[in-house]
Amino acid sequence: PGTYALAVHAPGFAVMRLPPRRVETGETWDVGALRLSSHGKLLVQLRREASLEGVEVKLQLARIDRYSGEMTPLKTEFDSFTYESLDPGRYRVEVTGAGLAAAQGFADVRAGEQSELEVAVRLGVKVQLKIGGKRPPAAPAASRSAANEMINVLVVDAATQQFAANLRLPRNPLGTTDMELCLGPGTYDIHAR
After folding, report:
1. pLDDT of residue 143
2. Given its phi and psi angles, is residue 81 left (phi above 0), alpha (psi -120 to 50 degrees) or beta?
3. Euclidean distance between CA atoms 193 and 45, whole angstroms
4. Dihedral (C-alpha) 150, 151, 155, 158: value to the nearest 10 degrees?
5. Are the beta carbons of 159 and 126 closer than 8 angstroms?
6. pLDDT at position 74, please?
7. What is the 3-state secondary structure (H, E, C) of the chain?
8. Residue 193 contacts residue 152 (beta carbons within 8 Å)
9. Which stretches of the chain drop beneath a pLDDT of 70?
């Protein structure tokens, strides 16, 4: 007889703990079927200046494919910083908001664990970009690719070589594509194709 707590462990799964239970002599404890979770959790902590308290921020979560490096957008949250039931893998969190420099961070999520990521949020400066050039010559409709209709813009912090923004914009068929970015102070390399 005695009081027992049960913890179920399996490689690659979250630990499941059952509440303590008193068991008497000759008594059995049928716990039924247990379903272990292979998901993880990500807690995002924002480090902001006092002047930015109360500014609403938007968090965009994307999963990074481990083979191709492609990012799949998953969730958009506003002032909510905990993502639960995530498949194990590498994730990018992008933080934006009115008057804020776009910021991002990367985290690895493991099954049954909570990962933590801290992202610095700071005031930004609006930058107006004009991307020139017409789209490639028109191809027959059957062979026209959606990729020809889009412009990929990559903004890299020149000092740290960290991505500051990675955007995909519709191409203006008449020539110049305009866009507005909010960047923190610094020097940036901007690539568009």
Report:
1. 46
2. alpha
3. 34
4. 150
5. no
6. 67
7. CEEEEEEECCCCCCCEEEEEEEECCCCCCCCCCCCCCCCEEEEEEEEECHHHCCCCCEEEEEEECCCCCCEEEEEEEECCCEEEEECCEEEEEEEECCCECCEEEEEEECCCCEEEEEEEECECEEEEEEECCCCCCCCCHHHCCHHHHEEEEEEEECCCCCEEEEEEEECCCCCCEEEEEEECCCCEEEEEC
8. yes
9. 12, 14, 50, 66-80, 126, 132-148
Which pTM was predicted?
0.54
What is the rounded end-to-end Cα distance, in angstroms, of the chain?
Answer: 72
CA distance 62 to 87: 12
The identity of residue 102, as a single letter, is A
Structure tokens at 131: 């991307």
- Quickly tell me which residue has 């059957």 as its tokens: 142
Matching residue, tokens 């959790």: 41
